[in-house]
Amino acid sequence: MKSLMHSTTSLEEGRTIEQECAILLRQAGFPVKRTTESEDIKDHIDLIILCNLDEIDHIYRIGVDVKGNKIYHDEGEDYRFVELKNVKGELGSLYGKSHFIAFQEPDGFLFVNRSQLAKFISDNVDTSIINTSFYPVHLNYLKQYRSHTNTQNRKDILTLIKLSDLRKFKSFKLFTNGKIKKWK
């Protein structure tokens, strides 16, 4: 019973965070719609931004996977959790079909290009060793991150990525006041 209540609460919290992100996108002038349950679960897309990027009357659908404000802080660095595999052992949100992963922050959302993040993780995360604690362990210069799991009996695999590294990708920050800051 406790796990069911926990998952319902997590689901409700997730929906609230997604709604906050949608409201900020609308305030910044982007038309947004919620995805179907199937798109959310199978494709890891929570929101669709509808936009016309060219002179042709073609509307592009830009998928966004919204992540809550789960930050790990250690020795002056902030880290964000990234899901490589979900609790069922299936591909996690990093390998979904979204264009961006939007990480909630106290003052808005950081939108990171998902495919660039996947490449970075492929190049820098050592997935051969699964750590059962979330303490970020720097293994060596090339493989500076390690993958993690919550407990021995779950199939999810996560990694922690420095917030400063997330800002190296094509990304932008959407602030609570509707302002946007681009990084690349």
Question: Can you give keywords for this protein?
Answer:
184 residues, alpha+beta, Trna Endonuclease, Chain: A, domain 1, 26% helix, globular
Structure description:
It is a single chain. Helix content is 26%, strand content 36%. It has 184 residues and is α+β, with helices and mostly antiparallel strands. The protein has one domain (2-182): Trna Endonuclease, Chain: A, domain 1, CATH 3.40.1350.10. The strands form 2 sheets. A 7-stranded mixed β-sheet has the order 1-2-3-6-7-11-12. Strands 4-5-10-9-8 form a 5-stranded mixed β-sheet. It starts with a helix and ends with a strand.
| CATH class descriptor | Alpha Beta
Number of distinct helices: 4
Number of domains: 1
Low-pLDDT stretches are: 1-8, 134-144
Output the strand order for the largest sheet. Answer: 1-2-3-6-7-11-12
Indicate the percent of residues in helices: 25-40%
Tell me the distance between the termini. Answer: 46 Å
What is the overall pLDDT average? 78
Structural class comes to alpha+beta
Per CATH, the architecture is: 3-Layer(aba) Sandwich
Radius of gyration: 17 Å
Number of strands: 12
The biggest sheet amounts to: 7 strands, mixed
- Overall body shape: globular
Can you write the helix and strand succession as a string? Answer: HEHEEEEEEHEEEHEE
Annotated CATH topology: Trna Endonuclease, Chain: A, domain 1
- Beta fraction of the residues? 35-45%
